[in-house]
Amino acid sequence: MKSRLAAASVASLALLALSACASGTSDDSDDTLASSFDPDKSYSGSITAMGFGAGDEIATTRMDVAEEALGGAKVKLVEGDLDIQAFLASVASGDAPDLVYANRDQIGTFASRGAILPLSDCIDGEGIDTDQYDDSALSQVTFDDEIYGIPEFNQVQLTQANQKLLDQAGLTVADVDGHDWDAVTAAAKKMYSAPGGKLKIIGYDSKLPEFLPLWAHANGVDILSEDGRTAQLNDPAVVEALTWAVGIYDEQGGFAKVKAYRDSADFFGEGNQFATDVLGAMPMEQWYLNVVNDVSPDAPMAYSTVMDRDNNPIAFSSGSAWAIPKGSPNPGAACRFAKEMTTVDTWKAAAQARLDLRNKDKKPFTGVLTGNDEADAEIQAMTTANEDPWKTGVEAMYAANDHTFALPANPADAEFKTAWQDAVNRVLNGQQDPQEALDQAQDEAQSALDEAWGKWDDE
Amino acid sequence: MSSAQLDAPVAETSRSPRRGRRRSSPQQRSDTRAALLFISPWIIGFLVFTLWPVIYSAYLSFTDYDVINPPTYVGLDNYREMLEDDKVRLALRNTFVFTLMSVPAKVIVSLALATLLKQAARATGFFRTAFFLPKMTPPVAIGVLLLLLFNGQQGLINEFLGIFGINGPAWTTDPNWVKPGLVLMSLWTIGATIIIFLAALQNVPQELYDSAMVDGASPWQRFWRITVPMISPAIFFVVIINTIDSLQSFTEAYTAFFGAGNSTYSNDAALFYAIYLFQQAFEFLQMGYASALAWLMFVIVMVVTALQFWGSKKFVYYEGGDNT
């Protein structure tokens, strides 16, 4: 422990940052841990949760419910996005928080390094029904057949389009939903406008680099194998997907122009690209529907799910998860809190709080994707978006939520993500062609995966 | 060797330092203790937060360390990996090219501005403050500002170039223009360098210029034959500081091309060595490898600085020194 403490502290200092270090932690043998989880137990004192922010009514309502379920213990939040290095240093130095809130794609990395605990005892002890969670969400927090996180929230993509520009070009939203790539390219060319070479309207934005996994899946292959061990980045279907998605930009004067134009947009304001009729269509996460509805309710929107090439809805799912760090001083209370934050009743209470606020503002309630299938069904029934385009948008959102896929948990997620994103960027920047870039990414990603899995398998 | 050294008594220099040291008086010892007491917070801080981590990072560079598990000794593996890592070569090339572009640019622009500032007479104080103000901008804000100013479609820089009929480049996406954009943006913070040059310029004796004018020297000759030699120590200092700063360049490029400004978009042309080191340490948690990278950078900075000091013997003029 002493050497870990020293190493954690010193490495952080030497390499740009200071990390917290303290002493004292619980000694969690497997037996003690198993007995920590009891649904009838009450907790006192306080627990600390790192990485969660109670910034809106959804968070505060759930916090209140979950805190009450602890039976007296208070929850202290270390707010803001999770600082991975600070979190790992706190675990290494024996000063771990009781609970950590992370992106689901970070769970594999934390699990493989022994920074978080497998939750089988927590799930059994507290009687958590894991069937209630969305399958893809659960798969993201399952590492080597063990569940390491309690998932919550889901982000999915919708095809979001400007009906006015579609009409002017004689198109419908089906032309840009992705089921026919040639049709999308043709639609992009029809809606695109660049008088005098200066881009004025982006016809279609394929949202690279972030949506390569979506386009690869639409073309029938995932960029990572189901067991999370094999990169599939230079699979011909991935190369074809990247070639097409980059080609969309080439048809509109090149990525540089499109990116510069979208970077200059008032993305979150009332002058957003849809409200100002300068973007034809793009795949985008569902939360942007809420943004547009909120800041520009008169924007001429059209919504649909994103389709694969067989015309089936698809969505690349992401979200958050609760996990219990190794050395958590109070894993029992942490488990109870994570459970209660994600129950159907808790989500309904949070949805009701938002519904009340939306009613007060005389705006429609467009739903919340919780990562809990039962809660999603209940909340969908509470939505009040009864008029188009928001009604169609909400329907598309829940349809997408029923057709999600995710990349499996793996121990080298950051390296894997960097490898494929860098590859896409090299193509977008004109430095490599898709095949060359993805071949390089395949080597880099596989090397990182082999090394990380090798360490895990050796332990 | 300086004349002062040549004139030193032989007997004195041949004595051992210990024997030659005079006993200090009680007052001197008391003063020394007080001085040490006053600077002890800094000394302790330096030892704990700088020296020890630096030494420990040398040890970590020979280990495989992921923050959470104990370091495992791997010998020279990290250094061997560095030799085979294409991205290390890319990051070093980017960093050197950026340094070679930014240091001369900073020196030339700040010297030109300082020269103008010297002519400003009573308004000097105002302009000095005005030039220094941008230096107060946080580097992260500069990174974000870069994306706005150099936006290829709507940015102020290209709008300005457009007035002259010039179709500006894609500064933030074209790999050939990313570094020039960063160099131009780095000029935002030359305020301190301007102040240093201004102080040096004001110390050049006016008689030298007067004599040169009497002899018919042109303005360029006066600048090149008098100003530059007389302020060469300041130029040398500025070159050293800016070289080290450029070799460690991080925040602006990271913010604009790898961090908050672009969560998924990145550009290889902006992958500086410090950014790659940061990625290895804090994104991939390869602390051992990152420590090895840090030590390579340390050695590079030392060698470059040593070369600059070696070169300075020929080009830097110190009044009263031996470089006449």
List keywords for this structure.
heterodimer, A: 459 residues, alpha/beta, 2 domains, six-stranded mixed beta sheet, five-stranded mixed beta sheet, 13 strands, globular, B: 324 residues, mainly alpha, MetI-like fold, two-stranded antiparallel ribbon, 17 helices, 2 strands, 70% helix
Describe the structure.
The complex is a heterodimer of chains A (459) and B (324). With 459 residues, chain A is of the alpha/beta class. Helix content of chain A is 46%, strand content 13%. Chain A is built from 19 helices and 13 strands. Chain A has a 6-stranded mixed sheet with strand order 8-9-7-10-11-13. In chain A, strands 2-1-3-12-6 form a 5-stranded mixed sheet. The longest helix of chain A has 25 residues, at 434-458. The radius of gyration of chain A is 23 Å and the shape is globular. With 324 residues, chain B is mostly helical. Chain B has helices at 3-6, 10-14, 17-20, 26-60, 77-84, 86-119, 124-132, 139-149, 156-163, 175-186, 191-202, 206-214, 219-230, 232-247, 251-257, 273-283, 287-315; strands at 63-64, 72-73. In chain B, strands 1-2 form a two-stranded antiparallel sheet. The longest helix of chain B has 35 residues, at 26-60. Mean pLDDT of chain B is 87; it is low at 1-17. Classes of the chains: A alpha/beta (459), B mainly alpha (324). Chains A and B meet through helix 1, helix 4, helix 12 and helix 18 of A and helix 4, helix 16 and helix 17 of B.
